[in-house]
Design a protein that fits this description.
- The protein has about 160 residues and is mostly beta strands.
- The protein has a domain of about 100 residues: Immunoglobulin-like (Sandwich), CATH 2.60.40.1230.
- The protein has no helices and 7 strands.
- Strand 2 and strand 3 form a beta hairpin.
- The protein is elongated, with a radius of gyration of 16 Å.
- It starts with 7 loop residues before the first strand and ends with a strand.
- Keywords: Golgi apparatus, Protein transport, Transport.
């Protein structure tokens, strides 16, 4: 994840827990038959936000600094025919008194995986108001991990 720019620091060691949704694709309800061989392309996959059912896993805070927060919400099901693909709804929230503009989420994964970010719901977050819910942007992230490799998530601020 790259919300802004400076040196990278480790944030979420997804490889440490056996219950991490990133490595529990068999617990998701897959639809259709599995792909033959390690299918990595995500070009033909689109998951509408309104079709996603949340899993019972708690959201993961991927970033939280200066009132800007990024949360990962994991889907209950994989895309049809792709049990190797994890569906994540990324929520970006602003609790700061200033607006956040020109937001672009970027994601990178090891060569054995592929990631696809579907279009976000917006690119700007209004300032926080104590009498209204915080402004939010949502974006669907698809993560193909056919070899079930472990990896460490990092962020740049």
């Amino acid at each position: 994840l790259i919300p802004t720019t400076t040196p990278a620091r480790p944030l979420l060691p997804f490889s440490t827990g056996p219950g991490s949704p990133l490595f529990q694709p068999l617990s998701f309800q897959s639809q259709g038959s599995p792909p033959k061989g390690p299918e990595l392309s995500l070009a033909s996959i689109h998951v509408p936000l309104e079709s996603i059912k949340p899993s019972s896993a708690l959201p993961v805070t991927a970033y939280d600094k200066n009132g800007f927060r990024i949360l990962f919400h994991f889907a209950k099901e994989c895309p049809p025919g792709r049990p190797d693909v994890l569906v994540v709804v990324v929520s970006m929230l602003n609790t700061a008194p200033l607006p956040v503009k020109s937001i672009v989420l970027q994601a990178a994964v090891p060569k054995s995986m592929k990631v696809k970010l579907q279009p976000p719901s917006g690119t700007e977050l209004s300032p926080f108001s104590p009498i209204q819910p915080p402004a939010a942007i949502t974006q669907v992230m698809l993560l193909a991990n056919p070899l079930k490799d472990l990896f460490l998530s990092t962020y740049v601020t």
